[in-house]
Amino acid sequence: MIKITLPDGAVKKVPEGTTPIDIAKSISEGLARNVISAQFNNTVVETVTPLTEDGTLTLYTWNDTEGKKAFWHSTSHVVAQALEELYPGIKLTIGPAIENGFYYDVDFGEHALSEKDFQKIEQKALEIARGKHDYNMRSVSKADALQYYKDQGNEYKIELIENLEDGTITFCDHSTFTDLCRGGHIPNTGIIKAIKILSVAGAYWRGNENNKQLTRVYGISFPKQKDLTEYLELLEEAKKRDHRKLGKELELFTFSQKVGQGLPLWLPKGAALRERLEQFLKKAQKKAGYEMVVTPHIGQKELYVTSGHYAKYGEDSFQPIRTPKEDEEFLLKPMNCPHHCEIYNSSPFSYKDLPKRYAEFGTVYRYEQSGELHGLTRVRGFTQDDAHIFCTTEQLNDEFKNVIDLTLYVLNSLGFNNFTAQVSVRDLNNPEKYIGNTDDWEKAEQAIINAAEEKGLNYVVESGEAAFYGPKLDFMVKDALGRNWQLGTIQVDYNLPKRFDLTYKGSDNELHRPVMIHRAPFGSMERFVALLLEHTGGNFPLWLIPIQAIILPVSEKHEKYAEKVLNSLENHEIRALIDKRNETVGKKIRETELKKIPFMLIVGEQEEASGTLSVRRHGGEDLGSLSIDAFSDLVTTEINSTLKSF
Ligand SMILES: [Zn+2]
Ligand SMILES: [Zn+2]
Predict the structure, then answer these.
(1) Residue 578's CB: how many other CB atoms inside 10 A?
(2) How many A from CA of 254 to the centre of ligand 2?
(3) pTM to 2 decimals?
(4) 1 is in which domain, residue-wise?
(5) Looking at residue 480, what is its pLDDT?
(6) Is 618 annotated as a binding residue?
(7) Cα of 18 vs its chain's centroid, Å
(8) How far is the CA of 179 from the centre of ligand 1 (A)?
């Protein structure tokens, strides 16, 4: 008999050779029907793998991430079989599950796969799935595995197998198809009820651009047709909210091949939006005791050697800029922190002067491979809403909590209510990834957990997610489509103060080392605006939106009155403009709806006579006739309901 421990702590004594699915059955038939994958002692196993020793067993259904992973990976085998049947002679490489679905990288030889082929592949794959084939894992010797793929002439699989150790190699069979695979499958192909091929893209073998370019086939599958329909609707909505598309429509930003890829250009409306975000944060920061500083965009290479950034990123980033005569080397600033450390170092401080809180909207530059660039979310130059707090160890806890308060204020003012906090700590198995001593790391990690506890944050601890110089607290936001984004971050750092030899005079008259907090509630202006666009679909909070109201004169006759209205709205600090085009009011209303301007103010004969506005809200609600003062009060009240003072 062996002892199997379940996640709830329950222990089952079962005969050796019992499988995960047997154990599910012993709990309930319903569970057994829904279990699609399993983990035993933290290793992925098949649901039919005989268990031969004591251990911990976790059973997964479609509702678990691990369950979905097994489902999608299993589907990739079926799709690979369909591809082989449809395009004989192709060479399969790897086919993992990803966050949403799976892909398979394939060498199609001469055939160029396109969207026209998708339906055919889906039909073939579904036909195979309906055969309810079991997935059977078997061990093969290295020699046999190599021979199998030599016979097929598949040099990719041969390369994979050559890097594996004899005795650890397994194949997975289903139907007439065999693939090199480590395992982790659903019980049989029959539970795959819907398959969609989503897209194809080029992908270099092993991600190396010197290798051959393969075709990456992306797909997704579901246990119910209804789930696929819902997923496709969500995808459609996500496309509409793509920040690159909305950024163009709303005239916020652009890119120019001449300027260079990954370097956003902010258009007037976008720049004004950024300015409002900056003013909003500056105002709150001022109340929280921050001081603004300004530092240059480049710094001597030595600065980043001291900070440790050069050792970590130097080779893989923008290369040094050289002066023509003295051969000095400068780097584009990848981080603001080293500059702020030198500001701290410019004058002596006593414990009474601390904390010092230096803030800067600092633009930094990081090299990202061109394939990684994406709209405003992955760029090569971006502006952080950065600040560094230098404080004593005794002040650390309070300071950290103050930063949490500020971050929550920022998120709430912008309508993000659905967020989680993640405490990112070291990976204890890979200490070489981090700089600094263990003692400081432990103190810093504990300080973050304490602050998160005291603030009652709903947080998770993730090991291996820390920065190389310290642990951090990250705020993760779910957008309107349920996608996770990482936003603001707060980090504790004992390391840079040492590297820059930062000190303060304590009450004992001795020199002590301050602790440093790095923080950026938005993360970066670029990323934040991208998320805001995708989260709101362009319907920004009223206080932030570029144009709050548009005045629509019924005819040319009323333009003078429209000008008067605009003037007095400007005096009330309402951002408005007049649509003077020679179009009907009906057409103007329809077009304004698309521009997501919150209020339409229609002015004609009657309005002019009574000195009023006919107010219509974005979305169609008619607010009737209002005086300019009444409209201004309405705007102020709505702004104050989301934008509280800090
Ligand atoms: Zn597999
Ligand atoms: Zn920093």
Answers:
(1) 16
(2) 28
(3) 0.77
(4) 1-60
(5) 66
(6) no
(7) 41
(8) 7
Which of 556, 542, 544 has the alpha carbon at shortest distance from 631?
A: 542
Q: Are residues 193 and 268 in the same domain?
A: no
Whether residues 261 and 128 fall in one domain: no
For 430, the 3-state DSSP assignment is: coil
In the reported structure, the alpha carbon of residue 512 is separated from the centroid of ligand 1 by a whole-number distance in angstroms of 57
Q: Could you say which ligand is closest to the alpha carbon of residue 189?
A: 1
Any binding-site annotation on 133?
no
Asked if residue 584 and residue 451 are part of one domain, the reply reads no
Q: 518 among the known binding-site residues?
A: yes
d(CA 166, CA 533) in angstroms, rounded, equals 52
* Sign of CA pseudo-dihedral 524, 525, 526, 529: positive
Per-residue model confidence as pLDDT tens digits over 351-409: 999 999 999 999 999 998 887 899 999 999 999 999 999 999 889 989 999 999 999 99
Ligand 1: distance of its center to the CA of 72 in Å?
10
Q: Which ligand is nearest to the CA of 385?
A: 2
4-23: per-residue pLDDT in tens? 999 888 999 999 999 999 99
Number of domains present in the structure of the chain: 4
pLDDT at 594: 83
Active site residues: 337, 366, 384, 386, 388, 472, 518
Nearest to 288 by CA among 195, 196, 404: 404
Residues 556 and 525 in one domain: no
10 Å CB burial of residue 347 (0-12, 13-18, 19+) is exposed
Residue 569, both tokens? 């709205």
